[in-house]
Amino acid sequence: MESHNNNPIPADGEAIQVRAGKFSVPDNPIIPFIEGDGTGPDIWKAARTVFDAAVKQAYGGRRHVAWYEVYAGEKAHNRFNDWLPQGTLDAMRQFHIAIKGPLTTPVGGGIRSLNVALRQLLDLYVCLRPVRYYPGVPSPMKNPELLDVVIFRENTEDVYAGIEWRQGTPEARKVIDFLNLEMGKNIRADSGIGIKPISVGGSKRLIRRAIQYALENGRRSVTLVHKGNIMKFTEGAFRDWGYELVKEEFSDVCVTEAEAGTGVPPGKVLVQDRIADSMFQQVLLRPGEYHVIATTNLNGDYLSDACAAQVGGLGMAPSANIGDEYAVFEATHGTAPKYAGQDVVNPSSVILCGSMMFHFMGWKEVSRLIETGISETIRQKRVTYDLHRLMEGAVKVKTSEFAAAIVGNMALPAAA
Ligand code: NAP
């Protein structure tokens, strides 16, 4: 029997196939999961209950997921003395779509972050963060429901590429000498140095995915967010390459702000750009004008957390890391180790990751059921401790009870 990490592959499932960037999903896909460290097992148990119930309700027995446990983080370290075993990567490559809970970040040693390692090894170049409001969640905004954006953050380049040299090292000195002596710059000798690579290929493939998403999901605009007024050949180039891509590949379905003048022709997606600092104001002051955002790595990191905070849902926000061959859906919060095993934490982030995953797989009915179940449960104010302490008149429930309430509240909207 075939296995990874000594764990046999489920016999009742089939692998998802990917051809020319298209994911083809059988009725019984094998989906690897990493339950995660700390509170990960509590959360995964609750999330899986919700996922299985939603699939069953949507399709009867016609479709099901063959879940397949793979290991990373502390659990992998304890079992295999390896934070990210080769078997886990092999399984992710074989089955293409995976979901994971939070992982302990190893302190010291070779791996800086398991999440970053996975993104790099599988070339998951899009970090996808949808941000929307769930009625009832406490928010600092007067009208949090006006913000409904999907953020495409470039995931592999920029200052996150990890190309940097510590101040005072021979390497830093060598780079400074090169820049000062050969390139005519004037960098202080006592500087640390970091490099910000932004490529045309990396930018265009990210922006392409954002535009395709807007077209497929009826979103009215794509906004390129950059700091191009200052960093002209990286951030400014990101914007220019975005507009170039629109001309090359999307001129029949998109218009740019300059072309649109006062109105966007019906059915076309508006492509516009905003400077990053002004964008932070825009999402506060005119949130309804933004639908899909495509941006570089560092801007995207800041902007996605700022937007999530606006809807009161930093702890609930889901995310996905997507490439041409693989997609990994992951919680945005950490392992919250002090609550491990207590069945108290909020499982919404992983549950909403699952909703995104089913949407990505084309199982949109499942995604809608999960969204309805979670919205309704929060509207009823049956919430875990974290939301309970912020919501007046709420009933505090355990992680498992929250999942059971979601299952009880699932119903397909009439239009589905
Ligand atoms: P954390 O695990 O996110 O926890 C910080 C605080 O956030 C918790 O004490 C809790 O606040 C709240 N919280 C987090 N998840 C929650 C949930 N599901 N439900 C309710 N409240 C939740 O951050 P950390 O303590 O800085 O990090 C712990 C470990 O996680 C570290 O090893 C870190 O590297 C790792 N980490 C992993 C990821 C990832 O895998 N994606 C992300 C971030 C951090 P209260 O105590 O106030 O209730």
Walk me through this protein's architecture:
- This protein is α/β, with parallel strands linked by helices.
- Helix content is 40%, strand content 18%.
- The chain contains 14 helices and 19 strands.
- It has helices at 40-59, 74-80, 86-95, 114-121, 170-182, 200-216, 232-249, 257-260, 276-285, 297-310, 348-361, 364-379, 385-388, 399-408, and strands at residues 3-4, 7-8, 17-19, 22-24, 30-34, 66-69, 97-100, 126-132, 148-154, 164-165, 193-194, 221-226, 254-256, 269-275, 292-295, 318-322, 327-331, 382-383, 395-396.
- It has an eleven-stranded mixed sheet, with helices on both faces. A two-stranded antiparallel ribbon has the order 1-2.
- Strand 1 (3-4) and strand 2 (7-8) form a beta hairpin.
- The radius of gyration is 22 Å and the shape is globular.
- The structure holds NADP nicotinamide-adenine-dinucleotide phosphate.
- NADP nicotinamide-adenine-dinucleotide phosphate binds at residues 102-105, 115, 315, 330-331, 333-337, 345-346, 386.
